Amino acid sequence: MHGPLAKVQPSSADDRRTMTTDNQASDLSALWEAHCRHEFATRDVNATMSTMVPEPYVNHIPTMTGGVGHDQLKRFYVYHFVNSNPEDTKLIPISRTVGKDRVVDEMLFCFTHTREIDWMLPGIEPTGKYVEIPLVAIVTFQDDKIYNEHIYWDQASVLVQIGKLDPAGLPVAGIETARKLVDKTLPSNTMMHAWATSEGKPI
Q: Which terminus of the chain is more exposed, N or C, with fewer CB under 10 A?
């Protein structure tokens, strides 16, 4: 996956699965995709904010970064998010679930750590390492606009991939988590040493 891919990958019927197929579901998906496009492709903060309610909030759970309310969130977007992402940042869609007022998006977030990324790796100088990390966004809508975002990823895996965390002796993995997400045939339980003790036992 490391290569010259588009910054925001287009979705397809195979990539995106929705629980509803009505116009409302399509509208929520379209608005969320426009929001991501403004964040990562056009890097237009005003356009990003225009997809949201007047007083939105964003919480990146592992690092507790984001903002509550228009002014705090716009400040975050302007100075610490939209323009702090590496140039090769790309989102690769895995799955999407759309409800009445909510979108749950599963994706791979990929980048080369060529600059300090305030929202994901605050205080960490660029390492030049390439990272692929599974990421989940839970997005709530209100009055046909984005109200909030809860964003989850495995911070330990990011730290392993940039060389800031030694996985030896710890139940953490690096880019393998992304590889396993897209290829179910890769082996399971490789960190679980006790797995071998159940070999051949009755089930």
A: C
**Residue 49's CATH number:** 3.10.450.50
Residue 181 lies in a domain: no
For 92, other C-beta atoms within 10 Å of its C-beta total 20
Residue 175 falls inside a structural domain? no
For residue 3, the model assigns a pLDDT of 38
Short-list 136, 131, 132, 166, CA closest to 150 = 136
Quote the pTM value: 0.85
Residue 76, pLDDT above cutoff 90 = yes
Rg (CA), the chain: 18
Displacement of CA 51 from its chain's centroid (Å): 18
Does residue 2 fall inside a structural domain?
no
**Do the Cβ atoms of 97 and 17 come closer than 8 Å?**
yes
**Structural domain count of the chain:** 1
Q: Is residue 173 one of the residues assigned to a domain?
A: no
Per the structure, the complete domain to which residue 129 belongs is given by 23-154
